[in-house]
């Protein structure tokens, strides 16, 4: 039986969204570009956290400052969704200090990708949906992806038809979709936010990783039993993957193919989720249908909300 995740209220024009910096420091100019899209194209108001432009070495302020901004947005009942300013690194340093009491009484959408995978995993672990999709600094990159985020926030059915790939393992499946950055998912195993992958459609992506480390992270998921009972697997973009001086001998797609070869569920490759301009929004925890052929991949909301 499919696990049911609770759905926060969808947004309507005039609602207010909060912006927080929970990881690496945020560029003001790129934030302003994203803010104008949220206000003008989405018809939403933007309330920035008190410390979104702080910086402490790599981070957007020290841990306690980033935690304070996130907590205030979670507790503020006037804020209907929270969009991360950017990713980078730092979310896992504060995630276990967050108080989810107010969120459970007044749930809201959390939006982001990359390092924000840690927040998505935590939110799914307490039984709620969230949105993996463009952040403030990436919202200007590609219109279809920006539109997909608006659709996700406003409760529209998500229906994607994307290009195929020669590695695709054909098939059809349904399940709640979960996932995000492969590194964060691997490090999440055994934590307080560890997730049950059984029956789920998993999506993975990453950036700037050495091929041997992609292999190591896939081995970690496999050893932890996370790959065995999936409903389906979506392999997103593995951007700027790197070789050591001694060649590893496999690409990211070949690594995933190797570690999932013994399973029978459908797998698609190079789906537009990740760190490229094309980054389609998905509501993590939503039941979706995945249909994979060599020539085409479709991913769509199984039970439309509207």
From TrEMBL:
* Record's keyword terms, sorted: Carboxypeptidase, Hydrolase, Protease, Serine protease
Please list the GO biological process terms of this entry.
Answer: proteolysis
Q: Which InterPro entries match?
A: Carboxypeptidase_A_C_sf (IPR027461), Class_I_gatase-like (IPR029062), LdcA_N (IPR027478), Peptidase_S66_N (IPR040449), Peptidase_S66C (IPR040921), S66_fam (IPR003507)
Q: Which residues form the LD-carboxypeptidase N-terminal domain?
A: 17-133
Q: Give the residues annotated as active site.
A: 114 (nucleophile), 205 (charge relay system), 275 (charge relay system)
Q: Which SUPFAM superfamilies match?
A: Class I glutamine amidotransferase-like, LD-carboxypeptidase A C-terminal domain-like
CDD domains the UniProt entry points to: Peptidase_S66 (cd07025)
Spell out the molecular function terms from Gene Ontology: carboxypeptidase activity; serine-type peptidase activity
Query: Do you know which Pfam families this protein is assigned to?
Result: Peptidase_S66 (PF02016), Peptidase_S66C (PF17676)
Instruction: Give the LD-carboxypeptidase C-terminal domain ranges.
Output: 174-290
> What PANTHER family does this protein map onto?
MURAMOYLTETRAPEPTIDE CARBOXYPEPTIDASE, MUREIN TETRAPEPTIDE CARBOXYPEPTIDASE
Tell me which family the UniProt entry assigns to this protein. Belongs to the peptidase S66 family.
The protein in question is named: Peptidase S66
Lineage start: Bacteria, Pseudomonadati, Bacteroidota, Cytophagia, Cytophagales
């Amino acid at each position: 039986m499919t696990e049911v995740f609770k759905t926060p209220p969808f947004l309507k024009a005039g609602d207010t969204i909060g912006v927080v910096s929970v990881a690496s420091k945020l560029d003001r100019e790129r934030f302003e570009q994203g803010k104008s899209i949220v206000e003008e194209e989405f018809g939403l108001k933007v309330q920035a956290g008190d410390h979104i432009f702080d910086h402490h070495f790599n981070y957007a302020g020290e841990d306690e400052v980033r935690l304070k901004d996130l907590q205030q947005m979670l507790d503020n009942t006037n804020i209907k969704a929270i969009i991360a300013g950017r990713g980078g690194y730092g979310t896992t340093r504060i995630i276990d200090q967050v108080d989810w009491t107010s969120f459970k009484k007044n749930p809201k959408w959390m939006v982001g990708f990359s390092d924000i995978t840690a927040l998505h995993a935590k939110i799914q672990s307490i039984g709620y949906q969230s949105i993996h999709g463009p952040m403030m600094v990436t919202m200007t990159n590609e219109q279809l992806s920006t539109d997909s985020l608006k659709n996700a926030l406003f409760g529209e059915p998500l229906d994607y038809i994307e290009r195929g790939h020669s590695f695709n393992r054909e098939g059809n499946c349904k399940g709640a979709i979960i996932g995000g950055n492969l590194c964060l998912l691997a490090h999440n195993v055994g934590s307080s936010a560890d997730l049950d992958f059984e029956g789920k459609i998993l999506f993975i992506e990453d950036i700037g990783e050495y091929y041997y480390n992609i292999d190591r992270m896939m081995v970690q998921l496999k050893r932890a039993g996370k790959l065995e009972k999936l409903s389906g697997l979506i392999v997103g973009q593995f951007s700027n993957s790197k070789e050591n001086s001694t060649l590893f001998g496999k690409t990211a797609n070949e690594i995933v193919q190797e570690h999932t070869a013994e399973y029978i569920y459908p797998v698609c490759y190079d789906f537009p989720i990740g760190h490229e301009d094309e980054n389609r929004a998905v509501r993590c925890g939503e039941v979706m249908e995945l249909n994979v052929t060599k020539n085409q991949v479709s991913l769509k909301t199984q039970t439309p909300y509207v």
